[in-house]
Design a protein that fits this description.
The protein is of the alpha+beta class. The protein is built from seven helices and 16 strands. The chain is 24% helix and 29% strand. Strands 1, 2, 3, 4, 5, 6 and 7 form a seven-stranded mixed beta sheet that branches. It has a three-stranded antiparallel beta sheet with strand order 14-15-16, covered by helices on one side.
Length: 340
């Protein structure tokens, strides 16, 4: 049976929800005067509160989630008041919503006491080492990720997406291996399946992120692609919005956008559940032969035609900056390579 999933709102806390924090940028006066009860949500060793097995946390909601079934999952959303960006910051698993709040004495909170309304499995709960951009998980631009009552219900597939994305972020950071192992255990709890290490295609994930960054400005894409041969900087990586990407992945993402995510052979595209499109990039001159990521060497193809192009009987008949003509398994094709 699928587990109940909610995404719940947390007021921002730059200490990682491990220490008390007064937020002068909070939208309501209480948070600027008193620390929120969720200030200790990711301190998993609270004296006289947490146990070796269970941790306690708090969510400020106007009505408790009555349809939440014990053993479910809570993902935590917070708006970073320093950057203005919404982030997915952590997860609790094997959660029980407490019908009676647990109240304990704690200096610094209002009336020197704090409250908890969640209990979760310590070994299956964590603060994400790398917060995720929450906008990526919205069903539509106009829809809030978290409801005004403090939470929203979701299907289990959003947990799989978020945990997979966090595993990717940790894997490229090269650190935090203990968190990586714990997150794989969380993946198993959420999905019922082991995490496949080979399922993280770092290049494809980077390309998807870069598509989101560049998809609204085709004029800039055209300028960037036309200037590829004139660039003085040959660095293999590029930093965009304080994050490092392979320079070649930026180029491939831009070509995907310019080709409208459609296979250049059959004209089809593949729509994913989140509304985005899946498409692949094929090298005319293979990378093993030092083929570059440039518009005259990249075709945008569906998975079937990509494999046929790579493994089929292929002969290039004519190629320049504007087009490529080739024969593939006995059929001739003439495809556009223009940047326009």
């Amino acid at each position: 049976m699928n587990k109940t999933v909610i995404i719940a709102n947390l007021s921002y806390n730059p200490t990682g929800w491990r220490e008390l924090y007064l937020n002068p940028k909070a939208s309501h006066s209480y948070a600027a005067e008193f620390p929120g009860h969720e200030s200790l949500n990711f301190n998993f060793d609270k004296k006289n509160v947490d146990t070796p097995k269970d941790i306690y946390g708090y969510v400020q909601w106007t009505a408790a989630p009555k349809n939440f079934i014990d053993g479910g999952i809570v993902l935590f959303y917070s708006r970073n008041t320093d950057t203005g960006q919404g982030e997915i910051v952590g997860v609790y698993c094997n959660v029980k919503v407490l019908t009676e709040k647990k109240t304990v004495s704690w200096n610094g909170f209002e009336n020197n006491e704090t409250r908890f309304n969640l209990m979760a499995d310590k070994n299956l709960s964590m603060l994400f080492p790398i917060p995720l951009d929450a906008a990526k998980y919205k069903e539509s631009q106009g829809k809030r990720l978290v409801g005004q009552i403090g939470y929203s219900y979701y299907n289990i597939d959003i947990v799989e997406r978020i945990i997979r994305d966090e595993l990717y972020e940790i894997s490229i950071s090269g650190v935090q291996q203990n968190e990586y192992k714990k997150l794989k255990d969380i993946f198993v709890y959420a999905t019922g399946t082991e995490f496949n290490e080979n399922s993280i295609d770092i290049d494809l994930v980077q390309q998807d992120e870069l598509v989101e960054i560049f998809k609204t400005d085709k004029n800039q894409i055209i300028t960037d692609l036309k200037n590829l041969d004139n660039k003085e900087d040959d660095a293999e990586t590029i930093t965009i919005k304080q994050k490092t990407y392979k320079r070649d992945n930026k180029t491939i993402a831009q070509i995907k956008i310019l080709r409208d995510f459609k296979c250049q052979i059959c004209g089809k595209n593949i729509k994913k559940a989140n509304g985005e499109f899946y498409i692949e990039a094929a090298h005319i001159k293979p990378k093993r032969e030092k083929g570059r990521e440039t518009p005259e060497n990249i075709l945008i193809l569906c998975p079937n035609h990509h494999k046929e192009f790579d493994y089929g009987l292929r002969k290039i008949l004519n190629q320049n900056k504007d087009l490529v003509e080739f024969e593939l398994n006995g059929q001739k094709y003439k495809l556009n390579l223009k940047i326009e």
